[in-house]
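Q: PD-(D/E)XK nuclease family protein, please. Structure only.
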Amino acid sequence: MEHISKLLTKIKLITIHENTLRKEKEKRGESFNMFSILKLSREEVRLHSAFITELLNPRGTHGLKDKFLHSFLKTIDSKINFDFTSIRVKNEFFIGEINNKGDRGGRIDLIITDKMNNAIIIENKIGAKDQSKQLLRYHNYAKEEKRQFQLLYLTKDGCTASDISTDNKKFDYTCIS
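A: Structure for PD-(D/E)XK nuclease family protein:
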């Protein structure tokens, strides 16, 4: 009986701690999610990628030029030296038909490029499962194009990509949320 009492005490402390964290998040506005409010939280292609593309685009309708892009690059600690006069931000960027081996081709959710052949490639995962060799295809594309690049894997919680997406290959990518 004493073990059960100790367990219940620990559970109570954990619950109090979690409630305190939740209330602090609410005070800071971290629980606000306009996509959830609009019942669009799973619309990866039509909403999330398009919205992020517009924010990061220096010629976006937001009128803030490259402020969002600079902030984003700082947040991800990008070491790429972009030429901001030639930045292009595109979503659903077609890189060719997927080949027989499945390691080339597809559509990149979001890509930021410049005339110096620099790129940031973002795979946006909001609820969808990893596709076979998906990150590997994007990595191979950037290597073949001889780009200086950073590959980002965007999820709600910053988790790593599955072995299915990387084909168990080791290459650099950054998890962001």
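A: Brief note, in case it's useful. The two ends are 43 Å apart (CA to CA).
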